[in-house]
Inositol-tetrakisphosphate 1-kinase (Stylosanthes scabra), 364 residues
Amino acid sequence: MPQEQASQTQTHDDERYIIGYAMEPKKIQNLLKPSLIEHARKHGIDLIPIDINKPLIQQHPNLHFHCIIQKLQPKHWDNLNLHQYMSKHGTTTTIIDPPHLVRKLQNRVSMLEFASNLPLSVQNATVGVPYQAVIDIHKTSGDDFEEMVTDSNLRFPVIAKPLYADGTMKSHELCLVFDREGLRETLNKNAAAGSTTTPVVLQEFVNHGGVVFKVYVAGEHVRCVKRRSLPDIPEEKAETLKGTLKFSQISNFTVQDDNGAKSNAGHNGDGANHLSNIERAEMPEENLIKELARALRERTGLNMFNVDVIRDAKDCTRYLVIDINYFPGYAKLPCYEPFITDFLLDCVRNKPAFVCEENQGMNE
Ligand SMILES: O=P(O)(O)O[C@H]1[C@H](O)[C@@H](OP(=O)(O)O)[C@H](OP(=O)(O)O)[C@@H](OP(=O)(O)O)[C@H]1O
Ligand SMILES: Nc1ncnc2c1ncn2[C@@H]1O[C@H](COP(=O)(O)OP(=O)(O)O)[C@@H](O)[C@H]1O
Ligand SMILES: [Mg+2]
Ligand SMILES: [Mg+2]
């Protein structure tokens, strides 16, 4: 890690804290890199794995967890029986964050409600959400379909997103839909999937210069990075485009990766163009990012998340939140080790802002 970006963390010499992490192996592999474990250790934190498949009360009988971080499916909450654990240790152990609050980010409608009508005031900038509507996926033909599209008030192109953003690969399978026929086709395919049919949110596609700003939040700590996004669709071209275009996890390339990365959504140009778009794009005002993070922490009651934000290509003061993810891939941030460690130290030193309302709703 470059010296100049090393932790601002101050270690209190003899303090040691035990922090448990409960998550699936893939997430552990992505997040708990040796560099993080070592950085945390040097700053007084021992990061200890928790087995997500058996009750926590049966694990580590001689350890006291000051705090537990987690990214879990509901079945893991049952297996861990954290309720039982917390009834014994709840006064001294904090769980970040309560699952009933995390769950609100797993639905693309309730997720964006947090970002609607945000009272932010940084210069002239506004932060909102794109217009979106949940549609009835069974109305795929005839007058029903026509009426539904008209009633939805949506303007094409739109992005069809699975309503549930529950961490599955399927929940990241998105589709650009250019016209009514494309929408009908998408709904028919969904219906053909039978038991795996999922409700769909249609969200207006907003031209934004091919760059998404990812705002990573860990308590009071906030970082914003630029990532690759879908390219703009010029209005005259939008009128001629037909059908649909599937894509998935387009922003999962860092700027460095982007050079050689190929996308299945490249309907308008090549990687090199995107790269220069990203390089050229001005970052949002730092205060705006801070205010956005603070407002969303307050509204969601959560500490660990990131927010995907785009800037309207037609109006550079208009920012739109398009996605909020619980416990994102912090390791993709440069120097994520001090970022996470500083946050964890805040948690264990019990800054009031970081204590989840007495771990309420834990087993809901
Ligand atoms: O695991 P699920 O619940 O699917 O959520 C994923 C993971 O958190 C990704 O991090 P990782 O790749 O480390 O698992 C994250 O990438 P970022 O950290 O780049 O945001 C994704 O954000 P999107 O890129 O918006 O999908 C987010 O949707
Ligand atoms: N309304 C929108 N207008 C323009 N581009 C969008 C919009 N919504 C999503 N995108 C693009 O699609 C990508 C994935 O969408 P997102 O809602 O973040 O889904 P996921 O949860 O799979 O990351 C975004 O990072 C962005 O590049
Ligand atoms: Mg996203
Ligand atoms: Mg997401």
Notes: Residues 286-300 form the longest helix (15 residues).
